[in-house]
Design brief:
Order of helices and strands: EEEEHHEEHEHHEHHEHEHEHEHHHH
CATH superfamily of one domain: AF0625-like
Low-confidence stretches: 18-27, 33-102
Strand content: 5-15%
Distance between the termini: 75 Å
Number of helices: 14
Helix content: 40-55%
Number of strands: 12
CATH topology of one domain: Rossmann fold
Structural class: alpha/beta
CATH architecture of one domain: 3-Layer(aba) Sandwich
Radius of gyration: 35 Å
């Protein structure tokens, strides 16, 4: 049996405490300091800091002021930002201005964004017509505006070849399918949509909700007199509807700065809460993007021919043709000169390719 080794005697100061062995040695702990004896000493990395050392901490130098002296212009090419060169700064006693933030979407909006279905390169919200109306009404109650776009085959074809047009659709707050080929393609991809939601239907359902909540409505688009006729038809069905104004811009108004400014100023002066813009894609989206900066609490609906449908100047297809995706045939027979090339040369081949690609992806994904 191995002999027991005695540890050397350790001399301890009065008041010291003995702590357990660490690496074979007795560790001496310094005497505890009571609160009423002396001020508390902060510990840094397990060591006590003496009061003298604590009071000798080097102060942090103030932040340097990089603003130029009086009489000097800001550096060229730099934006004028509050607190930087070129802009006045709040007084010494004034609190700093907090940056303006966009409101955080509510739970329903975040859930809807997660459920978006991508068809033909366009993110579409899987919502019914009543859900769209509820979403717009809830946003208006919160004082929030938005942009509603209704993609169809023609818009999808334009978006596929025009990056600027694609940005209009991607930045929209709501995008619902206004074409049965998009609904069929989503079904083939295994991400079905609840159905088709057209601008021609939304102009009636949203106007009904606007009449109930007394939200002023503005109609912009169509041939001369069409918007006024549509307003009369809407008021006849919903007598409490408030019409803030109507407008029928001439063709090519967006190329004339004076005409464009007149149309834009008229809408801003009317201060509507709901605006239907039927100028065709993407002209209506360009105007909407410009108006949203001045009317942040207004909802804009790019509705295409919906104003003409509401006015009765253009007849809609029967319900059974709309459900079966045959509305384009009805419209082609009514306006062959204007729609033959669009439907037969451009949209029909694109729709066939879209359905074929969606079928293949749905089978092998």
């Amino acid at each position: 049996m191995a002999p027991i080794t005695e540890h050397p005697r350790v001399n301890l100061r009065p008041g010291a405490q003995i702590v357990p062995f660490a690496l074979g040695r007795v560790v001496e702990r310094p005497p505890m300091v009571k609160r009423h004896d002396s001020p508390a000493m902060p510990f840094a990395l397990g060591r006590a800091v003496a009061p003298a050392a604590r009071d000798a901490v080097t102060p942090i130098p103030p932040r340097a002021d990089h603003r130029p002296a009086a009489g000097h212009d800001p550096a060229p090419g730099l934006p004028a930002v509050a607190g930087q060169a070129g802009t006045p700064v709040a007084g010494r006693g004034e609190p700093p201005t907090a940056p303006r933030r966009r409101p955080r979407p509510d739970k329903a909006t975040r859930r809807r964004l997660r459920r978006r279905v991508r068809v033909a390169g366009v993110a579409i919200d899987p919502m019914t017509e009543s859900e769209v109306v509820d979403h717009v009404v809830a946003a208006l109650k919160r004082g929030e505006g938005g942009h509603l776009v209704t993609p169809n085959v023609d818009i999808s074809r334009t978006v596929a070849r025009d990056p600027r047009a694609r940005r209009f659709v991607e930045r929209a707050d709501l995008a619902v399918a206004d074409g049965m080929p998009l609904v069929w393609a989503a079904r083939l991809l295994g991400t079905p949509l609840p159905g088709r939601v057209t601008g021609a239907d939304l102009i009636w359902s949203l106007s009904e909700a606007a009449a109930f909540y007394r939200h002023p409505v503005y109609l912009l688009g169509g041939p001369r007199g069409t918007a006024a006729q549509a307003a009369r038809e809407l008021v006849d069905r919903h007598p409490k509807l408030v019409i803030a104004g109507v407008g029928t811009p001439p063709y090519g108004f967006e190329d004339d700065p004076e005409s464009y400014a007149r149309v834009r100023d008229a809408v801003i002066a009317a201060a509507p809460r709901l605006v239907f813009v039927g100028l065709g894609f993407p002209r209506q989206e360009r105007l909407i993007a410009s108006l949203r900066r001045d009317l942040p609490g207004t909802w804009f609906v790019g509705c295409g021919s919906a104003i003409a449908f509401a006015a009765g100047t253009v007849r809609r297809a029967p319900a059974w043709m709309r459900r079966g995706g045959l509305e384009w045939i009805f419209r082609l027979t009514r306006e062959p000169g204007r729609l033959a090339r669009r439907y037969l040369v451009d949209d029909l081949p694109y729709a066939l390719r879209l359905l074929t690609v969606s079928l293949v992806r749905g089978l092998f994904s």
